[in-house]
Amino acid sequence: MDWKEKTLNLARNAKRASLNGLNFPEGSKDIFLSRLAGNLEGKRKEIIKANSTDVAGAVAAGCSAAFADRLRLDNERIGKMISAVELVKKLPDPVGEKIWETERPNGLHIERVRTPIGVIGIIYESRPDVTIEASILCIKAGNCVILRGGKEAKNSNRILVDILKQSLEEAALEKDVVNLVSAGGRKAVRYLLSLSGYIDLIIPRGGESLIEAVVQYSRIPVIKHYKGICHTYVDKDADIEMALSVSFNAKVQRPGTCNATETLLVHREIADSFLPRMGELFKKAKVEIRGCPETRKILPYSARAFEEDWMTEYLDLIISIRVVDSLEEAISHINRYGSMHSDSIITGNAESAEKFLKEVDSAAVFHNASTRFTDGGQFGLGAEIGISTDKIHARGPMGLEELTTYKYLVYGHGQIRE
Amino acid sequence: MDWKEKTLNLARNAKRASLNGLNFPEGSKDIFLSRLAGNLEGKRKEIIKANSTDVAGAVAAGCSAAFADRLRLDNERIGKMISAVELVKKLPDPVGEKIWETERPNGLHIERVRTPIGVIGIIYESRPDVTIEASILCIKAGNCVILRGGKEAKNSNRILVDILKQSLEEAALEKDVVNLVSAGGRKAVRYLLSLSGYIDLIIPRGGESLIEAVVQYSRIPVIKHYKGICHTYVDKDADIEMALSVSFNAKVQRPGTCNATETLLVHREIADSFLPRMGELFKKAKVEIRGCPETRKILPYSARAFEEDWMTEYLDLIISIRVVDSLEEAISHINRYGSMHSDSIITGNAESAEKFLKEVDSAAVFHNASTRFTDGGQFGLGAEIGISTDKIHARGPMGLEELTTYKYLVYGHGQIRE
Fold it and tell me: Which of B5, B202, B306, B396 has a CB 3.0–4.6 Å from the CB of B1, allowing a cystine?
């Protein structure tokens, strides 16, 4: 079989398994997760060995230190995978939940219940922990997965998928619930993205260029987890101590994450009292400031912000700062330059907060809290497969419920349409 | 300006209007709908005149009678449009509805509320009533629309869009809430489908080839309303009188609709007692029967069903009939050949019904009722923009709620992430 036939076969098998999976035996998904935790624990050495082959290969091919770090699996990271498996096992099963029901005048009883989506394709880069983390969430929600990871992680992904398949079989589930596409390079990805008869949803996990390529070629619905150009807006009615603490946290606590703030907007009336103290805090934390002309008058040590800065996800200890004339200007800056991810207003004025929360067109909008809270765990969703910047199907942190769809069950006693 | 600039400008204006629309003044959408009903009433003559130019043009160009009929607007159809406007006005506004909330241990209060999706592109064929019906549902859910109808309906669409814009202005809403793309032919459609920065969702309304072309070129999420290959399965434990009445209704009551049954599956054990009576009823109603070999033994006057018949949406007085050995065979026939639209089991056995409802992978699954009930109005959703055969975002009848997304509102008092 060539790569094309192999990929088609695999997609067909996944579809068949997903149809069987509409009636997974009670409890079998959690047995699978128990077995998986145990098997990962028992095979730590083999996983690390397979992974070290990948890391050595990538280093020999001249990859960056950051790339090698994302690729590496050590005991700590395997421990985190196992914890994730145990966490997902504890989450309630979303499948079968009745989310709406009605009784019609003709006596038809109609229910809307959550069901698995079917087959979900995950296209990702070099992080092999995605192999486990994405699979367990998809499977707990009753779905089958087709995984396509970066070629640099091929040995790591192969052993992890073997462990997934073994755990499925130990739970009396079909091993075709999880599938790894390994042959065919980019052509295989494009081909996969054309198989709309077998795959129901594609979730790309990775940088912007990966996501754009997937969107360009896919005939299957895609849920995008784009970048986070997040804002904190310090309103004229802000409590200054709170504004300092929240803005600092939003930028500095973990700057490499998508929910870290990249741009600080400051109302003109509070700029003189707020910005000098904010600037000092950022300076001490070695945050580079790129300011608008107004900001640079107050913080002469800051660099100049160019138009491009407002559109940049630094993922680093860099912040752009802009002084605005009004709440309206802050909102329109965010809707123009932001990525519809997470934005916060710091204000003591409830009316301004309501306007901001209503008119900022983002997945998560905060009043007096750090943008860093946008996260499935922090929101109480249990776990997340990512943070959707799309508006269709799932917005913001995407947990188990967002990995389901629904169907209508209609109960009658012979009703016909007049 | 050339067509490209015109289209880009229009998309930009729609996006701007949609951002303003996140805070539409209370009640203004319903004022718009009142004005629209009045204006359609007042301009019946002008609408019919513009439409007759279109119909004359299409007939002169040699269109079919069915095509001319879909294109035609008469007093009755305008009356139906006005009724639809009045119905949608009465429906509750979905925007702002709180669909979930939680209080986190750190004191963050998190709400998930319904919001408009933003800008929705409707791409359709020659039916000018879609111009009104799609627009009013999108706008009631707080969205802006970009309409692209068939060129044969251009005069009808122009006057209807003028009336929409006039009604928006009378309600103090921006006229850019509704936009009609009229220049540029197919190139304009392809270009429109690339404008993912301005358009949030595409809903194609029309035949399979239109939908496939849209899916092929779109970089914007698409919700598909594909064909309906619907099944009625008469189980061995069916009440025969009920099976006759429901199966007849599902095929004959309105065969041209997507929720009409195209294939009847009959359990072997009931075939001898059920099929002869069913065949008589169909014969009387001039329904052409295409049967499997088993069916043809019992109904010798039926034609032969070929493999292709199981995959055909007849939309006509034709039915394919297949005798199956088991419930499982019925389910796997439906999952293989169906279009995941609407399927029904007729049985007195509750366990068989549960299995069918769980394992048939369709948007609506019925027990002892006609597939013809899959419809937003019949389901109590008020109105529908169509019936989604997708699993992402909306499945089955797509009403006002399905034309919204949600956002997270997070209320804090200075919380930062540790």
Answer: B5
